[in-house]
Amino acid sequence: MRDNDSAIATDRIAVDTVRAPEPPAAPAAASAAPGALLAALGVAAFSLTFPATAWALEGMGPWTVVMLRSVLAAALAGGCLLVLRVRVPERRHWAGIAVVAGGVVLGFPLLTTLALQTSTTSHAAVVVGLLPLTTAAFSAVRTGARPSRTFWIASLAGAAVVIAFAVQQSGGAPSTGDLFLFAALLVCAAGYTEGGRLARHLPGWQVIGWALVLVLPLTVTGAALALATEPLRLTAHALGGLLWLAFGSQFLGLVVWYRGMAAIGVSKASQLQLAQPLLTLVWSVALLGEHLPPAAPVAAVAVLVCIAVTQRTRG
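Given the sequence above, the corresponding structure tokens read:
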């Protein structure tokens, strides 16, 4: 018996010795840091979209801004797809890519640019702060998911805050700019939802890349017509705003955002995106010198609270 006990003890020591060199969990946690940084860079890029649009509008018409930003972003995306020899997506994916193109490449930029002709960037930031909730609602409908009652209560509360803010700031009724912004929420949410579905089959940057390439004939034609009919004055602000919209917001921001989201997960990345409306409010004051109405930060924080609730109760 003693020999058997000794043998068992020896076997246990051997097993412990084999198990000892297992890598600790710390490196896995550390590897999430670059992903979080990439996602944060994406949020920072998106937060500058409205101020950059306001700058671009100082020297260009709205159609010129939208079409040129898409053409320039498509040139960069197409170059990346060509250099990396990315295969053309399967036929079954093109309908979804068309939805992304219509919502994210054309619809949202055009509608928000038209809105910013009459609305301030701070006002637009609060209204568009509702985008995560709108996207979540579209996703629930598209996927057939059934979020909890708390999720829907928080979503409706956030929508009520934004509508009340828009009505109060517009003197009792939504303005034309508000209508453009609400329409932008719908088309962008549809584009984000479809893009999220496609990202299960294609890398996220390829989804937006192919969407940009898909509408390139339309945007090139539109850019030519816009340049022929709208005034053009290439000031430093106008050129800088256009370049940021094309390369920062429309393409590179989405590249780092999708890579960061893949590294740390959708849930954690969404938590970082909660800072986007507040960052835009900061930029509207720092870069544009806008006077921030007291209701803007209050409404923005209220919307963020509602979004945080939906993130914790979703699914």
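The radius of gyration is 24 Å. Try to locate this feature in the token string yourself.
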